[in-house]
Input
Amino acid sequence: MHRHNLNTTGRSKRAFTISSSLRCSRILRAHQPGETTIALVSGPYQQLLDAAIQHLQELKARGVRFVPVAPETLAALHREPQVAPARSPAAPLAPAPRPAPLPTPRPALITPRPAAQAPAIEQALPLALPGETPAATPAAVLSPEAKAAAFAELRQRVMACVKCPHLAASRKNVVFGVGSPDAELMFIGEAPGADEDAQGEPFVGKAGQLLTKIIQAMGLSRNTVYIGNILKCRPDTPGQAAGNRKPTAEEMNTCLPYLHEQIDLIRPKVIVGLGATAVEGLLGKTVGITRLRGNWRTYRGIPFMPTYHPAYLLRNQAPSEKRRVWEDMLQVMEKLGLPVSEKQRNYFLKG
Output
């Protein structure tokens, strides 16, 4: 069997084109004409290869050009597949089992099984649709004590972080996050402001006070949800006596692994992205927040609801804008299975 080099292409070194992924899958099951023996893979493995090829072809037909590939996947793809012993030319070949029909792909991520149970081909091709992010590798469920210890260790690393020297030099406090580590609902903003930097807690300024009111209107509290930011330090504002600035993409990408660890430890059932900058930092450049808000996405395998930042509602206090945010929260409440009263449904509606 010939070995083939697979080259990454397109926008990222961790993304394969659909065409190259198809070639990879076909190479794994192919044999060279003229050989006297044929290396046969097991029936289940052959079935997985056929299923993967069919799924890639369906994605390609729908216009999807890239599939994300994790670093460990590259190693898996370059390993030689295990083969069964070659048969004698005289021995009749058993017919290959027909692959089971694939279910119609849903517009959401494929949730992976634990790594110990997932076949190699599934680990090698973690597919996601555009505008969504691959689910995190499922981790073992931690005991309350182990989760508390993991949170404490993560907090210690974040508090001492100096990956962005300009931010570390200008900050007053690292803003780690606040709320319950067992929260079913997580709110994520872009970065701390001046008030948050001074107090070391996210969303404590005027926008944070409005967020607290929204949470309370949902029948929850700041202690029962989790609130955090992508960036843990306030963006520096050299030469400015007041005000805040938008964090750069580089700053957010540097800090994003900390947020991923928080999400993976908390395991919320729903994530709410607050504002255009935070949503862009999580999902990448897609479309404007006006078109994104109110439409479910997926982030690390978790239902993700983009909505306006509370600061936007402070600038534009029209009941219609408040209603749009509240409609997003009603969807979140329904997704979480929270009771919704008629009074709650009628908030900000004109009489």
Observations:
- Residues 1-14, 31-41, 86-91, 103-130 have pLDDT under 50 and may be disordered.
- The chain is about 40% helix and 10% strand.
- The longest strand covers residues 302-307.
